[in-house]
Design goal:
Elements: E1 2-10, H1 13-42, H2 50-59, H3 75-96, E2 118-123, E3 129-130, E4 136-138, E5 142-147, E6 158-163, E7 169-176, E8 189-194, E9 198-202, E10 207-209, H4 213-216, H5 218-229, H6 236-270, E11 273-277, H7 281-284, H8 290-296, H9 298-311, E12 315-319, E13 345-347, E14 353-355, H10 356-369, E15 403-405, E16 408-410
Parallel strand pairs: 8-11, 11-12
Antiparallel strand pairs: 1-5, 1-7, 2-6, 3-4, 4-5, 6-7, 8-9, 9-10, 13-14, 15-16
Length: about 400
């Protein structure tokens, strides 16, 4: 499987200037390609192909006085900018055609030079190289000093240089994992109920308290935001204040990500199968609990569980979001009435006493373990699918009509 390894890089002032040139050239090529396709659509012309864009916006543009400075950066960076544009268009078309799952995507939009986050990508064609002394050699940029926290498992196929909003630089390598990292089998399987009072409640009764990293940093963030609001727009002091706010948010995000990595790794190592509920985080983010929902970071945590389960040979499953895990009794299966959020414990008419979150986690585990396959792994029930239009309606005379199928009269 493909993995991504991120490392902090420390470019010199001269290398920062060269990186800024590469960021700017990649942004200009991306915007030129987007405008060219807009013009073709308005003129009623056919969709401009990838090769046509590359020829016009890179090869021929370098020969013009207006775009001669594109030759100062690696051509691979410019080609990858157009590749990003093509990927954005493909994802947009797949979204409106229903081939892409999730929310409907918007069409690509122009990149702004005022955006503090910039990125470029180098592939093997650019001949980037990790030197023996640990430095990263990039064409027309130089040898970057990398802070290696661990070694790469194999030779990278590409590397992206990212500058975040806080002004930090990172090298993101894409590598192909070749070794077998499957863990030894574990005896336990677990269901997880995610929440706000407790970040995660396990089906075995374990409760993980929500750290609330954003809440703890709220006072400092409030002070920095107030200081930013007092700065005049367009001034250098405002730019410095923006970076300070970005650094504070980056510190919160890094702390949350580190904590989630440690928790997800421990869960995957101790359990053979992990099941979670497929929550609609986007919808919950529009409620009055939006700040707490975003502070929890459920989507990032479940994403870590999913890829680590695939990496280490574990089973990961998502239970349907409409599954009534909370009101269902894990002892008798009775579905009770909807409960308010302040009800943390309840009793079932069958006599069982339940903790709200632990009961939901047990139900998530049971729903995840239930599958539709026999002992040979063959599918017993067909997958869910939309009914044909002619079968999705009820005709007035359907109950009294008969038809003959191979000599058998069927109502």
């Amino acid at each position: 499987m493909q993995l991504r390894y991120n490392y902090r890089v420390c470019p010199t002032p001269g290398q920062q200037i060269e990186l800024a040139k590469a960021f700017g050239c990649a942004r200009v090529v991306f915007n030129d390609g987007l405008r060219r396709r807009w013009q073709a659509r308005e003129a009623g012309e056919k969709y401009v192909s990838d090769g046509e864009l590359s020829r016009r916006l890179i090869t021929e543009a370098k020969l013009t006085p207006e775009r001669a400075w594109l030759g100062e950066v690696s051509s691979v960076v410019l080609q990858q900018a157009l590749a990003d544009l093509n990927t954005a268009y493909r994802n947009f078309f797949a979204s409106i055609n229903g081939k892409r799952k999730g929310r409907r995507l918007a069409p690509p939009r122009l990149r702004s030079r005022k955006d503090n986050r910039q990125a470029i990508r180098f592939t093997k064609n650019s001949r980037f190289k990790v030197l023996d002394n640990g430095r990263l050699r990039l064409p027309k940029i130089g040898d970057l000093d990398v802070r290696w926290s661990r070694s790469l498992p194999s030779d990278p196929s590409s590397v992206a240089i990212v500058k975040d909003a806080a002004g930090r630089y990172f090298a993101s390598f894409v590598v192909q994992s070749t070794e077998d990292e499957t863990l030894s089998p574990a005896d336990s399987e677990i269901g997880i109920d995610l929440g706000l009072t407790h970040f995660a409640v396990m089906s075995d009764g374990t409760k993980v308290t929500a750290p609330k990293f954003l809440r703890r940093a709220a006072r400092k963030l409030r002070r920095l935001q107030q200081d930013l609001s007092r700065k005049q727009r367009g001034s250098n002091n405002r730019k410095k204040a923006v970076v300070k706010v970005a650094k504070a948010h980056a510190r919160v995000a890094d702390t949350r990500r580190d904590w989630q990595h440690k928790l997800s790794t421990r869960i995957i190592r101790d359990n053979q199968a992990v099941y979670v509920e497929d929550l609609c985080v986007v919808g919950l983010g529009r409620t009055r609990l939006a700040r707490s929902v975003h502070d929890a970071g459920w989507a990032g945590f479940t994403g870590m569980l999913e890829y680590k389960a695939a990496r280490y040979g574990r089973t990961f499953g998502r239970v349907d979001r409409f599954f009534p895990s909370t009101p269902m009794c894990s002892a008798c299966g009775r579905i009770n009435e909807k409960m308010a959020l302040n009800v943390r414990a309840w009793d079932c008419p069958c006599g069982a006493a339940h903790d709200r979150d632990v009961n939901a986690a047990i139900n998530v585990l049971a729903a995840g373990q239930a599958d539709n396959s026999n002992d040979r792994g063959a599918q017993v029930r067909p997958a869910a699918m939309l009914a044909p239009r002619r079968e999705a309606v009820t005709h007035p005379d359907a109950a009294c009509s008969t038809r003959s199928v191979e000599g058998i009269s069927v109502l």
